[in-house]
Each structure stands twice: as structure tokens, then as C-alpha cells.
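Please, structure for the following, as C-alpha cells.
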Amino acid sequence: MVSYEVSMGVLILPVAMCTGSLDFSVIADYQSNTTWLLFPLMPIGGMFLVTSLAETNRTPFDLPEAEAELVAGFNVEYSSLVFALFFLGEYNNMFLLAMFLTIIFLGGWSTFTFNVVNLLLFIVPILCVNALYIILRASLPRYRYDQLMLIG
């Protein structure tokens, strides 16, 4: 299992350099006054998406899950409620990283006032990123270990 937190931290540094802060409120306010950071930082946003796919063990990077399918692992060891809680934890991690991607690159929320429009501007991109996770899982093949290390 490979840890991707270091690469995520390095990918957030250009955002901190553009906005002057790592505070989510400051980042969202900066994007509401200028433009989404996805446009000027498109390659970094793509790398953050790929790293979040790898961090959540989604299909191109789900090598621990593939190894478990062959012999044992959580597919055999857990059943019923524990199995459901395991997968709910994985999807919760997906949702959390989609929130980070939305706040950092897709504008977050527009203003500090709470209304329905700002809530939709925050939730719709999160759902779109999660839909992208699901579409990529359905369409991409699984990498081998040597290919994964070459990407890293």
C-alpha cells in the first residue's frame, strides 16, 4: 500500500502560494473574487484528482483490493454489517476528498452567508466529482505494480 498524502500536500502548495493561505475560507473567498483555481492551475487540479483516486483505492490504483480478491481479505473476512461499514468508510473518504477538491479548485462556496444557492454551488460539484470517480472506475483498467511505481 502506497501513501499519497505527501504528494497531496505538495499539490496544495501552489494553491497556498496563489491565495496566501491554507484556510478554506480564504481560498473560497479568493476564488469568489477572481476565478476558480482549476483554470490557472489545471495540471495541478488533474494531478490532485489522480492522487485522490489513488488515495481512495479506486480502480486504476486498487491494487490492495485486487490482491484481496485472489486469496482472502475483507471480501472474505467481513460479512453483513461490518462489510457494509467498511464500504461506507471508503465512500466517506471519497466524499471527503471530493469536498477538498471542490473547495480548493472548484470555488467552494461563494460567500460567507448561508443560502440555498451557495449550498447548491458547493454540493453539485461534489456530486459531479463523485460521479467522475464512479465513471472512471467503470471505464479504466487496473494498473500493475510496475506501472503504478512508474506513475509515482
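Residues 5-151 form one domain. The chain has one domain: 5-151.
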